[in-house]
Amino acid sequence: MSKLIPLLEEVRACRLCEARLPLGPRPVVRAGEGARLLIVGQAPGTRVHETGIPWNDPSGDRLRDWLQMDREAFYDENRIAIMPMGFCYPGRGKGGDLPPRPECAPQWHEQLLAELPDLQLTLLVGQYAQKYYLPEPGKTLSDNVRDFARALQHGYFPLPHPSPRNRLWLRQRPWFEEEVLPVLRERVKRLGAFV
Ligand code: SF4
């Protein structure tokens, strides 16, 4: 019998780094046994913390646009698992939200992945997920994204963070929309019945 449901209950009760979380623990993670696509992002922002729904913000809207996917498909956890590098809102620093809590992924990711046997593709959204998962990460996030074909051999698709703050990054790299997004959409479509 799958241990996924009790494991998710355990995750949602996690208090491991409570002392470092300004708004307290509220782990945001979604997964169903049949998930074929996994999205590994950074950590919830305040809006996601409030609603408990991952990617429920302008970044999520852009990510769905990249994937050409509506909200219904995106939030079907039996098709898509969503597991950030840090499950709880980490607070703010000088330059914006703090990095994901470093305790989180080592504590939970491997256990969750063991209960998701049908995963075929993992989107690594942002530098933290790429550093953690890519077997040979490049020097920069741009290098990782540009070299997506190599990552795909390992089942990973590196992406920039779709935050509105990254507009400049996207404007300066037209190859992302022209060359990377069509492959991303084709790969996601291949997983079946997402749109
Ligand atoms: S960030 Fe992760 S490790 Fe820390 S309390 Fe939340 S779920 Fe637990």
Automatic annotation (TrEMBL):
Residues 28-185 form the Uracil-DNA glycosylase-like domain. Gene3D superfamilies: Uracil-DNA glycosylase-like domain. It holds the Pfam family UDG. InterPro entries: HI_0220.2 (IPR047124), Uracil-DNA_glycosylase-like (IPR005122), Uracil-DNA_glycosylase-like_sf (IPR036895). It comes from the Bacteria. PANTHER family: URACIL-DNA GLYCOSYLASE SUPERFAMILY PROTEIN. This is Uracil-DNA glycosylase-like domain-containing protein.
